[in-house]
Write a structure and sequence with these properties.
This protein is α/β, with parallel strands linked by helices. The protein has one domain: Vaccinia Virus protein VP39 (Rossmann fold). It is built from 6 helices and 9 strands; from the N terminus they run ααβαβαββαβββαββ. It is globular. The strands form 2 sheets. The protein has a 7-stranded mixed sheet, sandwiched between helices. The protein has a two-stranded antiparallel ribbon with strand order 6-7. The protein starts with 16 loop residues before the first helix and ends in a 6-residue tail after the last strand. The longest helix is centred in the N-terminal third of the chain and has 14 residues. Helices cover about 25% and strands about 25% of the residues. Strand 8 and strand 9 form a beta hairpin. The protein binds S-adenosylmethionine (SAM). S-adenosylmethionine (SAM) binds next to helix 1 and helix 3.
Length: about 230
């Protein structure tokens, strides 16, 4: 994957259009989610632990958004290529002015990553797995794995459903995906796919792709780590 600072458009698949538009509109207010008081203890732990796990690695970050996690990963990684489908979120990420020798940004669709260049021995995605439609998990795993070295470390961080803290779930579709109705500061209303997998479901989804799967639950978050299965990767 060749770093590229251009902000030319990346086409979203039809079922990703609404998600993409929602996060583009939310970009400037996105990091308010990290202010929730009840989540602060977990966040401080993860802000220490994730950079420790990725120390010295060349990290491909998927759906980096405003670069909240990028800024912590950059304290210990050798290099980070932070990718997202939205120019609006990448603009917020770039405003953090991280060392350009260490962190580069690129517009990229997580389902169609470019395996063509760059070598990554680690990947990270925060709050992306929960937005994967169940039927597209294999496509995402194929896209990601093709960009990683065999044995590369993968970290996925996401939300647990916590009544009173999480946005309530609305409908469930025929594939089993669940949805939330969310509101932005401008008053707009968005239905957003948000899944809350249990450990057993995640392990099944990773079957054939991952070795050494570890799943850890905090009060508000889960962190899943695995290594790219021997024989897979680039
Ligand atoms: C919940 S936010 C996570 C942002 C960041 N990782 C974090 O933890 O703060 C989800 C991100 O996914 C991005 N996104 C949506 N569809 C995408 C796609 N097909 N490929 C890559 N990124 C996508 C959105 O622009 C948004 O920044």
């Amino acid at each position: 994957m060749n770093p590229d600072r251009g902000d030319s458009m990346v086409a979203a698949a039809p079922d990703d259009v609404a998600m993409r538009a929602y996060y583009a509109a939310r970009a400037r207010e996105y990091e308010r989610i990290y202010d929730k008081p009840e989540r602060q203890t977990d966040l401080r732990l993860l802000e220490r632990e994730i950079p420790t796990l990725l120390s010295g690695r060349r990290v491909l970050e998927i759906a980096c958004g405003t670069g909240y996690w990028t800024q912590f990963i950059a304290t210990s990684a050798n290099y980070v290529l932070a990718t997202d489908i939205n120019a609006e979120t990448l603009r917020e990420a770039r405003a953090k002015q991280l060392d350009p020798a260490l962190v580069e940004y690129r517009l990229a669709d997580a389902y169609a990553l470019d395996p063509g260049g760059g070598r990554f021995d680690a990947a990270f995605a925060g709050f992306w797995w929960s937005h994967l439609p169940l039927q597209r998990v294999p496509q995402f795993l194929g896209s990601l794995t093709a960009c990683l070295e065999p044995g590369a470390l993968v970290l996925m961080l996401d939300n647990r459903y916590v009544p009173g803290s999480s946005t309530p779930l609305g409908r469930t579709d025929e594939q089993g995906n669940t949805y939330q109705t969310r509101h932005l500061q401008d008053g707009s209303r968005h239905e957003v796919l948000k899944n809350f997998p249990q450990a057993a479901q995640l392990r099944m989804q990773l079957d054939g792709w991952a070795d050494s799967v570890e799943f850890r639950e905090l009060e508000h978050y889960w962190l899943c780590r695995w290594t790219v299965r021997a024989g897979l990767g680039s």
